[in-house]
Each structure stands twice: as C-alpha cells, then as structure tokens.
Design a protein that fits this description.
Helix content: 40-55%
Number of helices: 10
CATH architecture: 3-Layer(aba) Sandwich
Number of strands: 14
Distance between the termini: 50 Å
Strand order of the largest sheet: 5-8-2-1-11-13-14-12
CATH superfamily: Acetylglutamate kinase-like
Shape: globular
CATH class: Alpha Beta
Oligomer: single chain
C-alpha cells in the first residue's frame, strides 16, 4: 500500500504545529466529551489518542464526560423508559442510582483504561470525590437533577500537579448525602471557569453553530457573546444549541478565554482545533 505522506510532509506538519504546542504547553484545556464520539469505538480511540498526545507535549488536559446512551441502555435493560424535560433527564431515585453506577463506574473507568493504553496517565474521579461538585435540586419536576452550587478544584489541581489527566464524571452530591445528575456541558463550563482554563472544547454531534441548520456549509467559525445573543434573538441559535451557548457564556464570564463548540464525529477534531490554523467548529469569545 502506497504511503499517503512522505517523511518530509510529515515533518512539515509537525513544524506547523510547533507554535500551537508552545502556546498551550503548561496551560489547562478542559474537554467535554460525549455524543456520537463516545458511541463509535473507532472515534473514541482517536479522541483518547488526541488527549494522550496533548498530555505528552505538556498540555494539562481535564476530561469531563457524559454517558447518556449508556445510561439509556441500562435503563432499558431494567425496564425503565428515559424521560426528558427541556433536554434534561428526569431522574428519580432509582435512575440516579443507575446514573451513578454507569457514569462514575463503567464509563469513567473504561475511558481511564483507554487513555492509559494510548500512553497517557489518567485518574478517574466523580464530582462527589473530594466534594468537587456540590449541588442542590434544580427543578422539582426533574427529580435528582442538580444545579451546581460550588466547585472545589483541589482534587483536579492536585492530579494536574502530579502530571495526571483527571477524567471526571458529572455526578454531584449535597451536604446531606443526596446524589445528583449534572448536565455534562454545564459541569464542564463550571469546572473550566473555576480552573481559569485557557480553553474549553465542547464536543457535540454537529459541525458547530450553523446559520442554516440544514446546511453544514453555513458554519460560523467564530463569534462573540454579543453576536451569539443576537443570533439567539433571531432564532438562528435554537433548540439544543441554546443550552450549549449558555454554557459558553457561563464559562467565558468565569474567566475561560474562549470556548469551541466542535464536531466530535470528525477524526482527530481536537488536534485540528488546537494545533492547526483551520480549527474544527465554532469558537465563542468574549466581547
């Protein structure tokens, strides 16, 4: 089989990435991971390769993950039907036990194992560990869905200082021992803000923010918070994209320099976003 790239072309690619490697060396990058990139095993391996590579060149990566499809699968096996209100999972006592088991157990540990197979050193945490994510009931209709009241960053920073990749499942608790299911995008935004992260990458199942939802070619590569609010008023940002953009605004307001909503279905999209001129999604910046 003929080689796609010559050694000279490979070397050229690496030298073009060098300024970006220097830029992000020692900086904290928070990655929210979920959706189709988590379901497809080949994509999952590529995401873990990207994260391991960033870690090996000195980027301090914090991986925040969801696991909705896996939760739905276990609920189905137990005869429970998933129910959603405004895009959030209705979570009764039995469901929150399933969420804790799947996110903090199966999904978290499988990602840690895969990262280590790719050459990274990773440690799995849930939001309950070290009281990292404290929460209260968000809406009585949703049951044990949490609204974040406090982020304690020390469990994360301790691992970063010891040169580990923290892998965080979005399960939280309160001071009375209640467990809460936290929306992954929201948790990532709060964590990135509390850490003062350089970047937040939110991996999703579409190309980014589109002017025309039916046309992938209408991707908006960059916009400010003010422009995002205007697009919301015009109805261009709508549906499931509204809470994602709200999370971008939350993170930037807390001190994150910029947030990218990016297509997790594209191979090596993380490296494309961080280490090339082109990028891989919509970057939202402050005004």
């Amino acid at each position: 089989m003929k080689e796609m790239f010559s050694n000279a072309e490979r070397a050229e690619v690496l030298t073009q990435a060098l300024p970006y490697i220097k830029k992000f060396n020692g900086k904290i990058i928070v990655i929210k991971y979920g959706g189709n990139a988590m379901i497809n095993e080949q994509l999952k391996e590529q995401v873990m390769e990207d994260i391991a590579l960033l870690w090996l060149v000195g980027v301090k990566v914090v991986l925040v993950h969801g696991g909705g499809p896996e939760i739905n699968e276990i609920m189905g096996k137990l005869g429970k039907k998933p129910e959603f209100i405004d895009g959030l999972r209705v979570t009764d006592k039995e469901t929150v036990d399933i969420v804790q088991m799947v996110l903090a157990g199966k999904v978290n540990k499988s990602l840690v194992t895969l990262l280590q197979m790719k050459g990274g050193h990773a440690v799995g945490l849930s939001g309950m560990d070290g009281g990292m994510i404290e929460a209260k009931i968000k809406d009585e209709r949703l049951g044990y869905v949490g609204k974040i009241t406090k982020i304690r960053t020390q469990p994360i920073t301790d691992l970063l200082e010891k040169n580990y990749i923290p892998v965080i499942s979005t399960v939280a608790s309160d001071r009375h021992g209640n467990v809460y299911n936290i929306n992954g995008d929201t948790a990532a935004a709060y964590i990135a803000g509390a850490l003062g992260a350089e970047r937040l990458l939110m991996m999703t199942d579409i190309a980014g923010i589109l002017r025309d939802r039916e046309d992938p070619g209408s991707l908006i590569p960059e916009l400010t918070i003010s422009e995002a609010k205007k697009l919301h008023e015009e109805g261009i940002i709508c549906g499931g994209m509204i809470p994602k953009v709200d999370c971008c605004i939350e993170a930037i307001g807390a001190g994150v320099k910029n947030v990218t909503i990016m297509d997790g279905r594209i191979s090596h999209s993380i490296l494309m976003e961080l280490l090339t001129d082109e990028g891989a999604g919509t970057m939202v910046t402050g005004d």
